[in-house]
């Protein structure tokens, strides 16, 4: 039997889930898109079907870039991407359930491969937490790329679409990167200056897709994989510097 409030508003549990995890996030993301006066270019570089790895720089510590990129790819490219994110999202059921409903997947090699083999688009940050949690004093300096995204591309023969994001560095200021060596060895967390996002202007540029001219067995060539990752990092760093020279003051 329906509860009275369900009868009045015509809502069931499924509808509430849709409201909480789909409608409200999209509404809030559209507000953020206007708040950041977001400019987007190169969206046509995302293939409209088939497996693809969308590889952005990572910054701002808050994860806004992950939320907004997933939203933009869905709205502009009409793809529903799997966003590979930090394992902290999946430590408890409280955070894991909404994360899954918003298209987040734990950033593991296996999860990336499985999504690509099903023909999905994935968003993967090659810098990982080292990019996201770097201090603002190092803003727009790409940290060393992990090589997993290159191996995924080789194994599944998927194109890579590099993406440069400007604005997240100024939206959330990170004073320092804290590294735990005793109780949580290897864990890195930020020391933020602000929680409320500053109104920096964002610009997101999708670069041309990269089709690697190698067969899947090249995944075992560590030297080649390292070279490809470095080349893509250099290409993205150059694009970031080009965009920085054009944008001027990020708050005007």
TrEMBL record:
SUPFAM superfamilies in UniProt: Glycerol-3-phosphate (1)-acyltransferase
GO molecular function (one): acyltransferase activity
CDD domains: LPLAT_MGAT-like
UniProt keyword list: Acyltransferase, Transferase
InterPro entries reported in the protein's UniProt record: P_lipid/glycerol_AcTrfase_prd, Plipid/glycerol_acylTrfase
Limits of the Phospholipid/glycerol acyltransferase domain: 52-168
This protein's name: Acyltransferase family protein
């Amino acid at each position: 039997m329906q509860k009275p409030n369900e009868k009045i508003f015509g809502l069931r549990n499924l509808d509430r889930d849709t409201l909480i995890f789909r409608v409200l996030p999209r509404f809030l993301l559209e507000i953020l898109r206007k708040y950041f006066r977001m400019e987007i270019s190169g969206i046509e570089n995302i293939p409209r079907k088939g497996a693809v790895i969308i590889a952005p720089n990572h910054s701002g510590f808050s994860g806004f870039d992950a939320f907004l990129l997933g939203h933009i790819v869905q709205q502009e490219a009409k793809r529903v991407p799997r966003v590979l994110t930090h394992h902290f999202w999946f430590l408890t059921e409280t955070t894991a359930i909404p994360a899954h409903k918003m298209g987040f997947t734990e950033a593991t090699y296996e999860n990336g491969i499985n999504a690509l083999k099903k023909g999905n688009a994935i968003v993967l940050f090659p810098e990982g937490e080292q990019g996201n949690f770097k201090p603002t004093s190092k803003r727009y300096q790409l940290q060393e790329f992990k090589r997993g995204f290159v191996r995924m591309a080789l194994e599944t023969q998927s194109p890579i679409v590099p993406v440069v994001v400007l604005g997240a560095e100024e939206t959330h200021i990170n004073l320092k990167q804290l590294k735990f060596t005793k109780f949580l060895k290897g864990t890195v967390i930020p020391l933020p200056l602000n929680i409320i996002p500053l109104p920096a202007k964002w610009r997101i540029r999708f670069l041309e897709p990269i089709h690697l001219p190698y067969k899947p067995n090249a995944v075992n060539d560590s030297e080649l994989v390292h070279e490809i990752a470095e080349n893509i990092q250099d290409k993205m760093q150059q694009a970031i510097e080009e965009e920085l020279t054009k944008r001027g003051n990020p708050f005007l």
